Amino acid sequence: MNHSIDRRTVLKGLGAACFLPKLEIMAADAVASRPKRFCSVFFPFGVTSSSRGKEHPALWYPKEVGKDFKPTPSMEPLQHRDSFSILSGLSHPQCRHMAHITNHYMTGSSLKRGVTNHESIDQVIARTLGKQTRVQSFRLSTTDNAISIGPKGKALPAIKNPRAAFEYLFAGAANPIEAEKRRALDKKITDAVLDDYKAFAKQLGKHDRDKMDEYLTAVNEAEMKIKRAEKWAGTPFPKVERTAGDFASDKATTEEFFDMMYELIYLSFETDQTRVATMMYGAEDASSSVVNKFASSVIGGNLHKCGHTYQFDKTAKWDRFLSERLHVFIDKLRNSKSEHGSLLDNTVILHGSSTSTLHNYRNYPLILAGGKNLGYKHGWHRTYSEDIPFNNLFVSIANSLDVPIANYHDSTGRIEDVFDG
Questions:
Q1: 356 vs 319: CA distance, rounded Å
Q2: Pairing mode, if any, of strands 366-370 and 347-352?
Q3: pLDDT below 70 — which residues of the chain?
Q4: What is d(CA 322, CA 254) in angstroms, rounded to the nearest whole number?
Q5: Which of 92, 210, 228, 413 is paired with 303 by a 20 to 30 Å CA distance?
């Protein structure tokens, strides 16, 4: 049997109270209680890379493999080389036929006709890590949908307004009395719906049952939110040295907007409001993607069209912009110290896209950062055979966060070298 003790434990005798010295058992307990976190950031349309015979000096992927790789111009803003690694070659084998689709990135599901998506890896992780936090998973996006997929294979909603996200994390949606009334009403509604459904479910045909399953999934999610709200009802929101006004984004530049989004993830981790967060720059839905609006002020053009017309001078500017924003985020986590080390040391960050370049669904451009205390070794450009599923990395990440899954969808094992120095 494992016993854990705290340094605040005292030995009492002869009328005196003595604090214990630091013992090995205390260190083991500290490791076990150390919060572990996961953050996934998705951007669409891939990166500037060799495509259809076109070359450019600002290609994203380093030419060198191993620990002595030379950062490309797009990666130069990432200054803490010991905090991240470049991964190339990985992709989802079942998803190499798809264009303008985003929902497979965190699942690996083919989404061919008749194929239903499944729960994304961040949500699998959140079911374990989210037991200890007010917010099970914190989902940000520039659209209404997150990169996250729920248990029934549907995209989960995201918050796209930074101010609304701040209020969700730190202000609550209503005053305590009104919130309690709302929870009680919602509970009565969900209970009534479930009772009524049980009464007539056997009378429904398959099509109606499928429709009801979708509806009841939403009801069930509402019920889970009610239970979580009840659990945390007596716990005050944490105080932070920021206000909702700091996250007003109406007149924000593209740089300011995404720095706000990253700041919100940082604050959510620092205050332990959540331990799982995702952010989506935009979806893979061609020229209509909202990311084009954000990118236009950075590159002076439509990002999707620039990719199609090989305007690599412009697409490389966006690549560098992404690295600049990621560096600011990594730097914040790195400089946030606690008894458990920095936030970065206890957080796994996956930054990537589901295309290497426009509509090429192989060789995802991936940056894996953080997680020093979880065993990750960085400073490498690691390459993999395209026969290795991207989901193998998901299994390794989940296991490092104490989520004991042996496989995930089409995984064939774990990727071990991310833990090798």
A1: 12
A2: antiparallel
A3: 1-32, 51-54, 98-100, 114, 172-202, 210-212, 214-230, 233, 286-289
A4: 11
A5: 92
CA 324 vs CA 75, 329, 346: distances in Å: 8, 9, 22
Closest C-alpha to 353, from 59, 105, 148, 103: 105
- For residues 152 and 217, the answer to whether their CB atoms sit within 8 Å is yes
- Go through the chain and tell me how many residues it has: 421
With the C-alpha atoms ordered 366, 140, 321, 77, is the resulting torsion angle positive or negative?
negative
Q: What gap in Å lies between CA 206 and CA 276, rounded to an integer?
A: 36
pLDDT value for 49 = 85
What are the beta bridge partners of residue 263? none
- Distance between terminal CA atoms of the chain? 33
Task: Specify the pLDDT at position 308.
Answer: 86
Q: Structure tokens of 219?
A: 């009801």
Q: Could you read off the pLDDT of 102-130 as tens digits, one per residue?
A: 889 999 998 777 678 999 999 999 999 99
Contact call for residues 404 and 106 (beta carbons, < 8 A): no
CA distance 162 to 245: 10
pTM for the full predicted model:
0.82
